[in-house]
Amino acid sequence: MTRLLTTLLVSSFLLLSLFSTSSYAQQNCSGFSFRNNQNFATCNPLPLLNSFLHWSYHPDNHTVDLAYRHGGVSNSDWVAWGLNIDGSRMVGTQCLVALRNSSGQIHAYTSPISGYETQLTQGALSFNVPRIEAEFSNGEYIIFATLVLPSGRTSFNQAWQNGRVSGQTLQRHVTSGDNMRSFGSVDFANGQLGGDGGSSVTSRQRRRHVHGVLNAVSWGVLMPMGAVFARYLKVFKAANPAWFYLHVACQTSAYIVGVAGWGTGLKLGSDSPGIKFTTHRNIGITLFCLGTLQVFALLLRPKPDHKYRLYWNIYHHAIGYTVISLSIVNVFEGFDALNGQKNWKRAYTGIIIALGAIAVLLEAFTWFIVIKRKKSDSNKNPQNGTNGVNAYGNGTHQQA
Ligand SMILES: *[C@@H]1O[C@H](CO)[C@@H](O)[C@H](O)[C@H]1NC(C)=O
Ligand SMILES: *[C@@H]1O[C@H](CO)[C@@H](O)[C@H](O)[C@H]1NC(C)=O
Ligand SMILES: *[C@@H]1O[C@H](CO)[C@@H](O)[C@H](O)[C@H]1NC(C)=O
């Protein structure tokens, strides 16, 4: 049985490495040199569609000078990048567009998107764009622009895209894969502090991964595992003090790591006011409260023979099972919020099914032992026979 539990522990660390290997490459950002020796203070690779955003933010006049690079395209493609001031994704995005026009020149213009059927026709944006130009070379468009940002904000949702130009018309972009996921957010002020201190798409993605690992391993795996130790190890007389310490060790480390994970979640939430995962957040806050209650309850635990101990046990089990059920639900809520991380969801589902199967086996085994013990007790000691089944029940209280 300990081998099974070790396997579980190992697989939870496999889950951890799955999380940590899926970060983005940062190449070709700082190394890139623009024509005319133009320089930008910050650069972030956008996570999809071979794109990069370079910029300098000027707090005094609240403007941004930027260069948007979109590679892996030909000059019969169009590219576009924009900020969505009030929404996210495509509709509402205030776009900068570049293409090769009918006179064969690379042309850049602004285009606000009001609906899915947009032809990306030229129009003024909701904020001022004093400068826009573009160039094309080596399969890469670069749009240079100066934006006068809407007042009072430096953090926005952004979206970027590419598609074919046929004749005079811009064709719709591909409606599957990366082209449907090329949106995120950008903070022009924070990004300046070295490129990953802010809410750039990549650093936020990384922080989401850290948040996912900490919580899936602590609340999602260690907590239920500690309960398995407590419930099933104590039936073995030889494991009598050991189960208690294993249980406390598992639950305490799960709580400590879990609180760290909870903190990263709150930070993620406060850094992305436009993105709300209300259920996930509320369950997370409830879990933190119940988990903390459980830790304090441990300190207030009455002695095993105290008359209130039975009530304490009922309370402890009720809160414990609630925490575990909510934790598992919330880990799945988290995977849904991450969107498209199917491998993590599969890995975690596997771990939970394995834990569940182990618990069912151990439950059956426990009953087998208890019934056997009851029989042999009643043979040895007929007058106390009715207490036999309580040997298991009392055992739970002896050391804790
Ligand atoms: C970096 O850029 C160069 C030229 O722009 C390109 O050939 C190379 O594949 C890029 N490397 C990566 C890792 O993106
Ligand atoms: C904004 O201020 C910066 C210097 O702080 C200056 O270089 C830039 O030209 C200004 N931009 C506009 C559009 O006034
Ligand atoms: C093509 O783009 C260039 C550069 O922006 C512009 O000067 C020219 O007027 C455009 N031609 C047409 C036909 O739109």
Automatic annotation (TrEMBL):
Any Pfam family hit: Cytochrom_B561
Cofactor, free-text remark: Binds 2 heme b groups non-covalently.
PROSITE patterns membership: CYTOCHROME_B561, DOMON
This protein's UniProt keywords: Electron transport, Iron, Membrane, Metal-binding, Signal, Transmembrane, Transmembrane helix, Transport
Required co-factors: heme b
Residue ranges annotated for the DOMON domain, each copy included: 49-163
Annotated localization: Membrane
Annotated segments matching region Disordered: 377-400
Record-linked CDD domains: Cyt_b561_FRRS1_like, DOMON_CIL1_like
Membrane topology note: Multi-pass membrane protein
Composition-biased stretches (Polar residues): 379-400
A GO MF term: metal ion binding
Annotated transmembrane regions: 212-230, 242-263, 283-300, 312-332, 347-370
UniProt function note: May act as a catecholamine-responsive trans-membrane electron transporter.
Name of protein: Cytochrome b561 and DOMON domain-containing protein
Annotated organism of origin: Anisodus acutangulus
